[in-house]
User: What shape does this take?
Amino acid sequence: MAAIEMKNIVKEYGDGFPAVNDVSIDVADGEFMILVGPSGCGKSTLLRMIVGLEDITSGDMMIGDRRVNDLAPRDRNLAMVFQNYALYPHLTVYENIAFPLRLAGASNDEVDRKVREASKTLELDEHLERKPGNLSGGQRQRVAMGRAIVRDADAFLFDEPLSNLDAKLRGQMRTEISRLQKRLGITTVYVTHDQTEAMTLGDRVAVLKRGILQQLATPRELYTQPGNLFVAGFIGSPPMNFLPATVEGNQVKLPFGTVTIPDDRAAKAQGRGLLIAGIRPEHFEDASVMDSSRAQGSTFKAKVDVVEWLGNEAYAYIPFEAPREVQEQLNQLERDLDGEAMRTQLVIGLDGASRIKEGDEAEIFVDSSKMHLFDPATGENLTLDTRGAGTVPSDTSTQAVAEEQDAVATPAEQEGAS
Amino acid sequence: MKKSTVGTWIGFIVIMIWCLLPVAWIVSLSFKSLAETTVGSPQFLPKDPTLENYKVLLGMTPDKSSSQDFLASLRNSFGIALIATFLAVVMATLAAYAIARLEFKGKRLVLSMALAIAMFPVVALVGPLFDMWRTLHLFNTWPGLIIPYMTFTLPLAIWTLSAFFREIPWEMEQAAQVDGATSWQAFRKVIVPLAAPGVFTAAILTFFFAWNEFVLALSLTSTTASRTVPAQMSFFVGPDPFNPPYSQLATASVIVTIPVVIIVLLFQRKIVAGLTSGAVKG
Assistant: This one.
């Protein structure tokens, strides 16, 4: 058991490509830390630097009290589960799990006791004599975890362990991993691109984009107090709605009408001109199914384009036009999130009882007290309550890095093509 | 359906006859007496099957003169082929691993040089090697044959093995390293077992080359101290100098072929086992 501390970690590849840029994350002893972000954000690189499979260009990697920058993977006493499990196909399940113990020179009795213990925990008893090639995906996943828990490692590292499983199994294994981690109480760093995994598993979540830490906070803090436009767009499904907005006094002008926001929020966004308002789908509602007791907010009328009814809830889509300035920022965001720039539309979460149909001119309620306002140029959340937002690094702008990366990437690609 | 099955069987039988008839002929010849092969009225099956040839060659008759030479050359063949195979496979494994895993300058040069050596006609080297070996006192010794055999089979072994190593995912080694293995342990306990089919393939190819090689074996040896079976067979002399002792030659061929068949069967099982356990794709 040990805490892991990353201090100003930088990873540059030989061609100067900065894959990880000045990232500082502290993982407390026994904490479940998630590294999340779209592909190419450096999360796997960071994990591989913790375990020692990638060199660290600069910064300090501390495990417990030791600086491990220059230690070989085998001297760091960490256990890792790989994305493709990396089981040894020539060994039985038993020998796969026993492998780390045998390398450590454990006696046969000890190996047997520990392997049986691990296999019991993971319900692998009847598979011990089989080869990994004959196992199902979920069973292989469990063997990989068995190999990790069998030794007394200081921490577990997971590199997208569930991405090769089908959706149902993924849900089950997710709970299994969570249960295991809680029971063993071992420090864990878990890389994923799946925000559901990030939200459900993590004690804290580090959101990365283009090698730069965007926000480090609990799942709840990330959801309610996103540090910037990127985090706001990344966390939540369906994602937060982004609308062009201008603030005058405590009134916010949106494409659908004007809403009132709390004074303290309004004060932070005064005199900034055109802003981006972020409202989560569930902060809208069909005004006709609301009980009047629900607190402050505004209503507006809009023509509903498409309705998706899911039983317990429904989603309504309302297209709108955004000014070019906002549109560009939103397109960039969409690219950062590995998405494709689509039409700007409002996604509204409705109660399952709502009777709004496609093509209806509906009256929609919006809980504007939960609205966030973002600076369109920097993406910064102007209405952020810093007390409840975990760590938001002061400079999360990836503009400079993006240019640098693009500049490096182009000649490298040409070279690769020739 | 039925028709195609019949066709398959006919094709199968034709190919079997085509391939195995010469072998069957040699086996049948080996059971004929020396007299029967020289009378000039050949028939496929021996008129009067005899084990005389085997007895003579394996030293089970009072006259040991021909068996001594043959058994010595058999010993040479085994020793030289096994040592050459072992050295070639060990070196090729290490070289191929480096080529598959490491980035170093001149990697392509190494690979293309290896290929060029493999293409080089062996006969062209007989003269230079003969001179060199005499100077270096390697003429008519085991190392004198082991070194060229190893050299000529290394390129093919390196190419085969590096293809196998490339198929093995990096994660295997990384997992082993995280589990506490040194690079050498990861190589020995994970990578080599996974590449076992490739190692066996390379071993078989090398062994066959060394076992069957004739030109160098004939030119770089002078006595039974190092002469291998294929070369020794050309020195078989019967009672009549104008008629080679065909039945004895056939017998020697059969005896020499048996180990090869056994080795292929053994290794084949290994190769199949390696492939079916899903060695590379986990």
